[in-house]
Amino acid sequence: MKTLQNIDRRIIYLLVFLALAVPMLQPIGLPFGINESSQKVYDLVDALKPGDVLVLSFDYSPSGQAQLDPQARAVMKHAYSKEGVKIINVAFWPSGPLFADKFLGEMEGTHDKVYGEDYVSLGYVAGAETAISAFGKDMHQAYPRDRHGNSIGDIPMMRDIKSAADVDLMISFGTGTPGVPEHVRQIVTVYGTPFAVCMNSVSVAGNIPYYNAGQMKGYLNGLRGAAEYEMMMKEPGSATASMDSLSFSHLTVIIFILLGNIAYFADPDRKKK
Amino acid sequence: MKSQGLMIAITFVFALIIIIDAFFAIDFISAASTEIQNWGTIIASLALALAAVNLIRIHSRRIRLRRGEWYNSVALLTVMFVQTAIGLVNRSTGEVYNFGFNNIMTPLGATMYALLAFWIASAAYRAFTARSIDSAILLVAATVVMLGNAPIGESIWSAFPSIKTWIMDVPNMAAQRGIMIGGGIGAIALGLRILMGIERGHLGGSDE
User: Fold this and answer.
1) Spans of all domains in chain A
2) Is the Cβ of A142 closer than 8 Å to some Cβ of chain B?
């Protein structure tokens, strides 16, 4: 029992590492269902018609990329495959535009959208919630130029898109502040714009009231959400491949919690402590 | 003190314009509100520059005085200047700037976050014990949510996802809503205090 009470942390680290790495090298392919919230995000993107406007807001930093990158990659692939849909890429986090650029680079040649006519990258604007509000109210004033320095008035697709009221769907890839509450307060409540979120797992518990209140029409929950989206697109990718690692790492943590409790209750001195 | 009075008056007028614009559709108020919000984004950009200046001051001083682990400050300032110079010459859309971001910043940031998996496992083993009824409830809820979220949970028992959904949608949401409503009321109260000039912390002075 003494051994159980004092497992060296390096052994724990090693077992967690193995639980993450081995399934990556030898996938088992454990089955998983599609959550209703993920299905709703897919349906919202899939229901976009020619002429509809979609805003993709990249509100995360490198620390969130393990969960958010696969989500963004899958959603963007789906959105850019929708004929005639106008897409605006924005960011309210400084590193956001660099992620958008990365995915656009990866997708080059896989879609027939033309920059300026079908999609545009507006880049980052500082100011957090104030910036979101300014963007929703008047995109042309909040972003006088796009990410490449073109005047927004000269971009053909932006001529008729002025405010969040002209947007048919907004999706935020977010991990913190500004994030869901700020978008709900400044965009959803004011303009009634349909809104969906792709977030990391740790943010779900705090943002779930917005989903149940109907302010958030759907959400992707971390890496699992990304894997579900890939499965709905019938294109399994990096997130689907990581599901076994997720399972075994969770299981390892649970086993250590159990061991910790067994050691605690088996300790005859615990009442004295 | 005169300048504080002026600041309070400006805060009051600007806030009033934003509040009126939120509730009524009046053209000139809407135009003024848009302008104020655009000023907000410009001020925020300047604040970022100010933060950079502050960072340089603090770390330059640390290097000059050779304070503990001052070499980390050298690394920080070097990377900051190099990446800024690349951004100014190559722009943030350029290949060189993106190379630095994708191959240095992104892996480092992701690694720092990923290390949590190891610390959480170790911390959970040492600290996550059912010492009381409260901690036992927390422990069971956390375990079920973890199993409900991972595919292996479904394979062990198909009811795990449903139980997880109930935990998230009922007790979790009740608590989150309570926190949100409480926070919202607090924000309204704080906003009113600032508008009335009772709260002056943001002006750099005391409440008096």
Assistant:
1) 36-236
2) yes
Whether residue B5 has pLDDT greater than 90: no
Same domain? B156 vs B98 = no
Mutate to test the interface with A, among B30, B48, B129 (most CBs of A within 10 A): B129
Tokens for B80, please give them: 């900051």
The model's pTM: 0.91
Taking CB atoms within 8 Å and a gap of at least 24, the contacts of B129-135 are B129/A260, B129/A261, B129/A264, B130/A261, B130/A264, B130/A265, B131/A264
A interface test, pick of B27, B39, B42, B106 with most A CB neighbours within 10 Å: B106
**Residue A25: is it exposed, middle or buried by C-beta count within 10 angstroms (0-12/13-18/19+)?**
exposed
Question: Does B128 reach chain A within 8 Å, measured CB to CB?
Answer: yes
Give the homologous superfamily in CATH for domain A36-236: MTH777-like (3.40.50.10160)
| pLDDT above 90 (res A23) | yes
What is the per-residue pLDDT across A97-152, written as a single tens digit (0 to 9) for each?
999 999 999 999 999 999 999 999 999 999 999 999 999 999 999 999 999 999 99
Supply the range of the domain harboring residue B100: 91-126
- Total domains, chain B: 3
Question: Quick one: B66 and B107 in the same domain?
Answer: no
Instruction: Give A175-234 pLDDT, tens digit per residue.
Output: 999 999 999 999 999 999 999 999 999 999 999 999 999 999 999 999 999 999 999 999
Residue B117: how many CB atoms within 10 A of its CB? 20
Cross-chain CB nearest to B128 (options A16, A212, A260): A260
Mean pLDDT of B78-93: 91
Chain A CA closest to residue B92:
A98
Q: Are residues A253 and B121, on separate chains, in Cβ contact within 8 Å?
A: yes
Cβ neighbours of residue A9 closer than 8 Å, sequence gap 6 or more: B122
Would an 8 Å CB–CB cutoff place B124 in contact with chain A? yes
A254 neighbourhood in chain B, CB within 8 Å: 143, 146-147
